[in-house]
Amino acid sequence: MSDETSFGFGDIQPKRPQREPEETAAVDRVGDSLGFVSRETATIQRKAKPGPTGPTGQFNLRAAVADVNEFVEWCGRERMSYREGFGRLMELKRQAEQSDARSRRTG
Amino acid sequence: MALERPMPVISVANPKGGAGKSTVALTLGSTLAAKGATVTLLDCDPNQPIAAWGKGQDRAGLRVLSEISEREIISAIDAESAERQFVLVDLEGTASRMVSRALSRSDLVLIPMQASAVDAAQAARAVGLVREEEQVIRRPIPYRVLFTRTSPAIPTRAEKAIVAEMQRNGIAVLATHLNERAAFKALFAYKRTLAELDPEKVSGLPAAIENANKLAGEVVGVVRELA
Question: Is pTM, for the whole model, over 0.80?
Fold first, then answer.
């Protein structure tokens, strides 16, 4: 379009290879570790859906930003509330403990 | 037949405010558009200086997009880069996820800085992020530091010392600086491009245009070299 200009942009074309979408999560982790964190509260203040069963308790915790963001992203990716995400973590913990106990009994 | 190069996405980043990011993005974008390129300016600064500059105006070759969230930045860059020759991303003057995501989609990162130790420290932070992201996305993200608001006459002692230190540390620096010129401030004051400003009202306009052309020429040269 602009071969007539002194810059001659004719060789610069709007073509571009697509990049992998999954690299964004890795980029976010690197950015978080260097302090380039999300400034949009909506991304870390997702409202958990009310749970249908059992009594519930509540506690606050202060955690590393990278851990918080990883947890929030995991919950978002798996389409689960924080309550469900925390429940899954605890389930994984129980499974790991049972596995350890079995190993001790058989070993 | 001309060799086709992928069009460049150029992000302008420095976590420090006041380094001259918006002035660089606007000067570069409007100069490239004036030379015949199709350019999109993505205004990702919460203060929206370029959006305010371009509001209600229509210029050939120059598109200004604003109010882009962290979630939208990558798709906005990808969409614009599919149809425009240059996409310039003016980033906010803070360390944020918006910055890290934009850098991951960039073909060139310009890091404007004034010749001061405070600016140098924050510029180094941007360089650090670029280098870390290169490891993650497994491709180089070329960057160039660009000195802004420097004297067009004689470099100060502090400026020479900072340039020398950067060279010692292997940090790539553009030879052209964006000098301190009334015309670059007038861009925002009058909501005009350099070519549209009135030389009767703005002092040193020809020198500012020459400065902008030289900067655009060097950036285009870097883009071609990297392609």
Answer: no
